[in-house]
Structures are given as C-alpha cells and as structure tokens.
Amino acid sequence: MSLNVTLADYGVGNLHSISKALENCGAKVTVVEDMSLLLDAQYIVLPGVGAFSRTMERLLPYSEEIRDMLLSGTPCLGICIGAHILYQGSDEGTAPGLGFIEGRVAKLHTHQVPEMGWNSIEGDDPIFEGIANRYFYFAHTYIGRPEENVMVGTTHYHETFASLVRKANTYGSQFHPEKSSDSGLRFISNFVRFAEGCQ
Amino acid sequence: MLTRRIIPCLDVKDGRVVKGVQFQNLRDCGDPATLAALYEKEGGDEIAFLDVTASLEERKTMLHVVERAADQLFIPLTVGGGIRTKDDMRNALNAGADKVALNSMAVNDPEIISECAEDFGRQCVVVAIDAKRDGDSWYVHTYGGTRSTKLDAVEWAKTVVDKGAGEILLTSMDADGMKTGYDIPLTRKIADEVDVPVIASGGCGSVEHIHEVFEQTAASAALAASIFHFRKYTVGEVKEYLRDRGIHVR
User: Over 90: is that where the pLDDT of B219 sits?
Assistant: First the structure.
C-alpha cells in the first residue's frame, strides 16, 4: 500500500517538482487547495512556494487543529516557506505562524540576500542516511530561528543557521530537496520511509 | 559554504536548442529536455532556457518544452526570453520554471519587477541585462539586443535590485558568442555594486574563462552554452578543473 501524502497548494507557484519527487519515491500525492482537507491528511507536505502572510492567510482558520495534529505525531515535511510557517511568526509578514515550533523567522544576518545556490549541511539525523553529497539547493532571505532544541542540520552563510529542524514527526527544511538533484531525491525518499515507519 | 554555480544555457527556437554568434547565425544543437537532463546528470547546478524567438505561436511551443524538461529535472530551471506580461511569467512558472528572467518588459515598465516579486516571490524574479560597451560605460539593450537604450547598465542593475529582482543575469553583448572570455570589467563592476547574485554570461569559450570570471569577480554563477553543447567539456570536467584551482563548487 502506498503512502497517501496531502500536499498543500496555497495558490502560488508550481508544485510539479515536489509532486513528482514524492511520486518517484512511491507516494500517492493529493494536492489540496482547500486547507480544511489537511485535517484529514495521513501525511502532510507543506511546499516551499510563496510568501509568509499570503500562505498563512489560507491556513489561519485551521492553524490550531493543524498544530495539534503535528504535536500528536502526524508526519509532515515543511520546505522553505512551508517550514517558516511552523514557527510562531515571521518578520516577513504580520500574520502569526502555526506556533508548532517556538521561535520566529527573521532575515539572514547579511546584506547579501537572497542566499541562492548550493550549500552544505552538517548533521547526523537518520534522514541523511545514504546521502554522500551533502550539498542542497537554497533560495531564501529569511530563516527560522528556533528557541527550543529542534535543530538537526546546520548550514553556514555569513552565520550558522538551522537548515533542518525536527520536532515530533515533522521535519522543516530550509533547502529545497525537490531541487537538489540526487541528494534531494534521496532525502525525500528517506522522509517517505520515515513517515511509513510512523504508522 | 555557498558554492559557485555552473549554469548550462539552452537557447531555444522552434522547440530545438540553437546556438548563434552575437545573437545571429543559429546552429541546431539538439532537444532541450534531453540536453537539460544530461547536464543535470553531469553536475549542472541549474539550467537556463532562453526563448530566442518572439512570436506568440512559438511561445506556446516554448511552454511545452518547459513542461517536458521540467518533468524530468530536479535542479532549478530559469526561463527567459519573450516574457511580455505578468501572465507570461505565471504561465512559465506553471509550466515548471522555478525562476523567470525579465528583460525588455522590465525596461519598458520597471514597476512590473515589484509586482512580480510581490506575487511570485523575489527569489523567482531574475532580471536579464544585455549590456554593450560604448566608451567607458555599458548601455542596456532590449528585444534580443536589437534596440539600444540610454540606460547605464550599472545604474539599471541597482534599480532592478531596489525594485525587487532576486538575481541578475548579466550578458555582455560584446563578448557573446566570441569565445574570448567573459567581460570581466563589466561583471566585476555590477557584482560589486549589487547585493543579489549575479550570473556572468556571454563569451565563454573554455574552462579557463570560467575560472577567470570566478577568480576576478564576485559573480555567483557562470552561464555557458557552446562549450557544453559542442561537447568541448562536460559540466563535471569544468567542476573538476575549478575544484583543483581552489574555486568552491558542488
């Protein structure tokens, strides 16, 4: 039986790559525009397209329920903006975040933004299993700054920041695994195996 | 540490990859989707597709090419050329592009840069600047290099960043297709003046040229076409050469 992943479509940007990557790893992907459908999800992927406030506008009516789902162990992968909304809020917008992770999203400590390109990740979380080349693709100006112990991957760009966080069965990645060639596909495949193991 | 990027560039006309000299004399180089997938395998960091035609019919062909290529690509894809409206940009993104390069449209109406950044996110708005030297300055040209403007390329680069461009694709028209190396003074000047990443383009004829532009300027990426299309080097060979000389690449 294949894994049923619910992919949130906030209405901006393309979800081709992440859908394709999940499908390649054997998952069945359901794209939902109605965010209330996330509440029925077995596994959630929050993709990395769009801006903070516009994304949260859609999620806000369900934010408490989604937070409770994640706290009680529903497996979830949040990518870039999809990871930012896991926090309590962001300097990028006025809307509150889901508040699943303590801390806020703030600008990188440099004028040289966006950070765009391939950077390496340090960390020994099992989700990196079998990934020899640790370079992943980043495209961001903001970064989540957790105030609890959830950091499982770090990256350096003018400062050392949390490029991968993990809490309960949720991973939040600042990089784009769906744009990170073989290393990214293996990361997604490892997430799918991890999510299956949470059943 | 963030690495320098190598971006194979595919000029696309009538659904085929072509390569010209100073924007003219086009030669057929193969199928865009096949080449893009090959370059990913070799270690290309991103792919750029530039539509070198302009008619409406051909632009539809281009969207199919983007769809077909994006379907088997897991690295970022930038699409440029012939983007005239915000809807064109949306269509390219929906077809599978990760970033869209604006050129003439941005010159005609600079506010469109801000609107696109707001709607789609700054990281997917690339402004392409085609610059040609005249005396001690470089001037912006539009419509595939056919029309000159009075815009100073360095000032224009600063303007587009203020408006919300997330990246600059800087092509030297003097160097394009000449295979004599990137325009180092132009690239250095603009890469030093703006905070967003600058992609150096035009003039690459050998791996030494890529080394030179990374060593002598702050360009964050180098774009090249013919050295890859005509199989002078694989992307992997270029990276090995750079790595051996202390340039940080993936």
Answer: yes
- Cβ-based neighbours of B96, under 8 Å, separated by 6 or more: A14, A16, A17, B66, B67, B69, B70, B71, B73, B77
Q: How far is CA B83 from the centre of its chain?
A: 14
Q: Which amino acids of B are annotated catalytic?
A: 11, 130
Q: Whole-angstrom Cα distance, residue A67 to residue A63?
A: 6
ipTM over 0.90: yes
Q: Which domains does chain B have, with CATH numbers?
A: 5-244 (3.20.20.70)
Binding-site residues on chain A for chain B (CB distance < 8 A): 12-14, 16-17, 20-21, 49-51, 111-120, 133, 135, 137-141, 156-157, 178-182, 184-185
pLDDT at B211: 98
Assess whether A178 carries a catalytic annotation: yes
Which 8-state DSSP code applies to residue B2?
Answer: P
Give the nearest chain A residue to B195 (CA atoms).
Answer: A112
Neighbours of B51 (CB within 10 A): 24
Residue pair A114/B122 in contact by the 8 Å Cβ criterion:
yes
What does the pLDDT look like over B6-47, one tens digit per residue? 999 999 998 999 987 666 678 888 999 999 999 999 999 999
Neighbours of B60 (CB within 10 A): 11
Q: What angle do CA A59, A61, A66 make, to 5 degrees?
A: 60
Q: Name chain A contacts of B76, Cβ cutoff 8 Å.
A: 137, 139, 179
The domains found in chain A, sorted by start residue, are 4-197 (3.40.50.880)
